[in-house]
Write a structure and sequence with these properties.
5 helices; Elongation Factor Tu (Ef-tu), domain 3; conserved putative lor/sdh protein from methanococcus maripaludis s2 fold
Length: 407
């Protein structure tokens, strides 16, 4: 007798659901494959009909024309503005400060009174020494009269030579005393002059270091105020020793080499000056040499200890072929530009560059005047790429004009 088999009612619906989902996924995959085939087929057909050139998308670029210009050859360096003179104004006598005659940050001239020390003790001492001087001058005059009398009596054999010699010694003694008194008088007059503290140089005052009512002496290290010369002012910078030959070469016009100073971002020119001096030795630890340039600074635009950029003009490259610096590319081929051709494609051309200035760079080989180069959009180009120039007509006209103007 065979065992009874129970119907598998629970597993049958599950298998049916799995089969249904497999069918749905297969249909979706077939639809996606059909759509992809249509897209690829349409693109291929379009490319086949348009030819090989239709597959290449033209890139929009900006262009400029190579021209001739004079390019300055400059050496640039970070520099420090340095005052030619800085003076710590100190009291030269001791006493109480009775007044301050300057404002902080004021421009002063040499000899201007900055502060006043109480002069009364020195006025009293001057009067005392003047009195002593007057007394000793009277004594000296009396000794001279006595000497003349004794000399007359000696001629008459009425006195001895010893008496005359003693009278001569007394005159010399009183003359020395009078000289000492006169020196004391002059010292007190000088002290009264020192009671008026004056600026030793033209310049700008800093913060005052002492207030009215304080007792000042010549040994005070901080002094009363620091005065810094502002006009003219110097800029100190360094250059590599390899640049010395170009710097030491005499300039074409025989004048000092021009130096310009720019702000720290090299975007704003601050002043124009001239090279003043070159240090007498190369710093062996850095391989550089120091240079100093002088600048007129009437408006105080250059400030002591300020960091700036210095640009020293050493030569000028005449009638050089120039293009904007944005046209020059560097990469595996070396230094190159993309030159626009008449068929609206670009050609990669290797070049050799020289000095640059004002956004342009000199090209010493590889380009001719009138060549049109790509200055914008070169990052997306390759040799032979097709391009579109939005302002192509204007670029063409300017290129022809530059070619016509070239010698």
């Amino acid at each position: 007798m065979h065992p009874r088999t129970e119907p598998q009612s629970s597993s049958t619906p599950s298998r049916r659901r799995v089969g249904l989902w497999v069918s749905v996924v297969a249909v979706v995959l077939l639809i996606a494959a059909f759509i992809a085939w249509r897209v690829v087929s349409g693109t291929g057909g379009s490319g086949h009909q348009g030819g090989p050139g239709a597959q290449q998308t033209a890139t929009s670029v900006g262009v400029a024309t190579a021209t001739r210009a004079d390019v300055p050859v400059t050496l640039e360096s970070i520099a420090t503005v340095t005052s030619l003179a800085t003076a710590t104004v100190k009291a030269q006598i001791s006493g109480y400060l009775t007044s301050i005659a300057f404002r902080e940050g004021q421009t002063v001239k040499a000899g201007d009174v900055l502060a006043q020390v109480d002069p009364r003790p020195y006025q009293i001492a001057l009067a005392q020494y003047q009195g002593q001087l007057q007394k000793d001058q009277a004594t000296l005059e009396n000794a001279r009269l006595d000497l003349r009398r004794y000399q007359q009596l000696m001629k008459q054999d009425s006195t001895s030579k010893q008496t005359v010699d003693t009278a001569i010694a007394s005159v010399h003694e009183y003359e020395g005393t009078v000289r000492t008194d006169q020196a004391q008088v002059d010292t007190q007059k000088l002290n009264l002059t020192y009671a008026r503290i004056t600026s030793p140089i033209d310049g700008r005052t800093g913060f005052r270091q002492v207030d009215v009512g304080n007792y000042v002496t010549s040994s005070d290290t901080d002094g009363v105020v620091v005065v810094t010369q502002m006009d003219p002012i110097s800029v100190v910078f360094t250059l590599p020793e390899d640049s010395l030959a170009a710097v030491l070469k005499p300039s074409a016009d025989g004048k000092p080499r021009p130096v310009s100073v720019w702000d720290r971002t090299f975007s704003t020119k601050l002043a124009d000056g001239t090279l003043d001096t070159i240090d007498n030795a190369v710093d062996t630890s850095t391989g550089t040499v120091k240079l100093r340039a002088l600048f007129a600074n009437p408006d105080g635009r250059l400030f002591p200890n300020e960091f700036v950029n210095a640009s020293l003009l050493v030569d000028t490259l005449r009638d050089a072929v120039t293009v904007p610096t944005t046209a020059v590319q560097t990469g595996t081929p070396g230094t190159y530009v993309y030159v626009l051709k008449s068929d609206r494609t670009v050609s990669l051309r290797k070049i050799t560059t020289g000095p640059s200035a004002d956004g342009n760079v000199a090209v010493t080989s590889g380009l001719n005047v009138g060549d049109v180069v790509v200055v914008d959009g070169a990052d997306h180009l390759s040799d032979g790429a097709r391009v579109v120039v939005p302002d192509e007509k204007k670029a063409s006209v300017s290129g022809k004009a530059a070619a016509t103007a070239a010698p």
